[in-house]
Design a protein that fits this description.
This protein is mostly helical. The protein contains 17 helices and five strands. The structure holds carboxymethyl coenzyme *A (CMC). Carboxymethyl coenzyme *A binds next to helix 16.
Length: about 425
């Protein structure tokens, strides 16, 4: 008997099974052999919310939630945030290695030369009311793109995949900027490939034909760092959706529309918007203890707190807190930061949060920076989407090129009625 295995005894039958371990884990499929009656389906594992289920093997992102560690392709997030830039990190995440100078130039050139949208898409943005949520607009823009780039459905072709990666990374900032310009009733600014990725995005948002227009380099750098911090986070809800839809061989635009829809939820990427609303509602540092008491009573959750994986301070939140003060040097302070700092202080000294290991997550401070930069709250999750795009794409490619992956198809434990006969409307009483 190998020692790299588990021995399971089925107390119903007394039978013994040896389940091999692979990288320290068992394949759920091995459980199937455990059954009382040979006609039975066999045993499954039950795991709502995939709390303890690995759905893939991945080489992209490493998280140690207990220690608060996050690495992309082995590189610590702190080093990447300080020394790299978003396009380089996107390359690293997608291709697995940092690019050479020439590779980075080619990569940046390709992305910055896939930034223009099909002109028909401007009609899509105009179809929305002025107060439409930009995430709804972005999700439908992705679906729209799937109708324009038909070859994208050839997901097994590596060259076709790469072309869509250039397009998605290139065009998403344009989509986001057009959503914003539509809502403020200003004409669209077309992309400028002579600028850096984040700089061009800020330009498309802001430019109003001023004579000496320049994007503020501190703000461009801050947003670039925020994009890096959001670039991947292994198998979270939206990434799992990207892999799931992708596993059906849908094109990447459709898969990403689904991933963005998952991200929109307030328990995921929508939390940054919810944090700002929460801080505005608290209004004053003095009201923090009272608000915390209501959270503890279960009236609502403290937004921007807690994480499925991090049971320690989210390393991204630590970096974002520092970036906030760089941004305030340019924009002036955001008074909500004082409420946030107080909220963190009170929560982290309260047994409710300490015992549940609830710490500030990436969304706790990011909204404060976005708001200081004058982004309206409903744009925050759009910014998260721009940052997360390389991660979704890298995970999608990894899934498609992994020979073990099949169409995502979870099982269920059926607890509904056994067969019963249809009752006509008259007989139902
Ligand atoms: N405020 C108050 N209590 C909380 C919170 C919170 N933010 N988060 C979890 N809890 C409590 C929860 O009530 C439960 O308590 P009990 O054991 O007494 O029932 C316990 O902590 C465990 O919670 P859970 O819901 O089982 O944890 P989960 O891993 O399923 O949920 C989460 C993770 C992020 C959805 C959750 O912490 C949450 O809703 N946080 C607020 C929303 C948020 O900030 N989301 C952003 C996540 S980070 C960025 C991203 O992924 O997009």
């Amino acid at each position: 008997m190998t020692t790299d295995s588990f021995t399971i005894i089925d107390n119903r039958t007394g039978k013994q099974y040896e389940l091999p371990l692979e990288h320290g884990n068992i394949r759920a499929r091995e459980l199937r052999q455990i059954k009382v009656d040979p006609e039975e389906f066999g045993t499954m594992s039950y795991d709502p919310g995939y709390d303890n289920t690995a759905s893939c093997k991945s080489r992209i992102t490493f998280i140690d939630g207990e220690k608060g560690i996050l690495r992309y392709r082995g590189y610590p997030i702190e080093q990447l945030a300080e020394q790299s830039n978003f396009l380089e990190v996107a390359y690293l995440i997608i291709f697995g290695e940092l690019p050479s100078k020439q590779q980075l130039e080619e990569w940046s050139y390709q992305i910055m030369h896939h930034t223009f949208l099909h002109e028909n898409m401007t009609g899509l943005f105009h179809a929305y009311r002025y107060d439409a949520h930009p995430m709804g607009m972005l999700i439908s823009a992705l679906a729209f793109m799937s109708t324009l780039h038909k070859e994208a459905s050839r997901v097994e072709d590596a060259a076709v995949r790469l072309k869509q990666i250039y397009r998605i990374l290139g065009k998403l900032p344009t989509v986001a900027a057009f959503c914003y310009r539509h809502r403020i009733g200003r004409p669209f600014n077309y992309p400028n490939a002579d600028m850096g990725y984040t700089e061009n995005f800020l330009y498309m948002l802001d430019y109003m034909h001023q004579t000496h227009y320049e994007v503020n380099p501190v703000l461009a750098k801050a947003l670039d760092v925020l994009f890096i911090l959001h670039a991947d986070h292994e198998q979270n809800a939206s990434t799992s959706v990207m892999r799931s839809i992708g596993s059906a061989y849908a094109d990447p635009y459709s898969a990403m529309a689904g991933a963005a829809a998952a991200l929109f939820g307030p328990r995921h990427g929508g939390a940054n918007e919810a944090v700002i609303r929460m801080l505005a509602e608290i209004e004053n540092e003095k009201r923090v203890p009272e608000y915390i008491e209501r959270v503890k009573k279960g009236e609502f959750r403290l937004m921007g707190f807690g994480h499925r994986v991090y049971k320690n301070y989210d390393p991204r939140a630590r970096i974002i807190k520092q970036v906030a003060y760089d941004v305030f040097n340019v924009t002036g302070t955001n008074p909500l930061i004082d409420i946030a700092v107080k909220l963190e202080e009170v929560a982290l000294s309260d047994d409710y949060f300490v015992s549940r290991k609830l710490y500030p997550n990436v969304d706790f401070y990011s909204g404060i920076i976005y708001q200081a930069m004058r982004f309206p709250p409903d744009m925050f999750t759009v910014l998260f989407t721009l940052g997360r795009a390389p991660g979704w794409l890298a995970q999608w490619v990894e899934m498609l090129t992994d020979s073990e992956q099949r169409i995502a198809r979870p099982r269920q434990i059926y607890l509904g009625y056994d067969e019963r006969d249809y009752v006509t409307l008259e007989q139902r009483g």
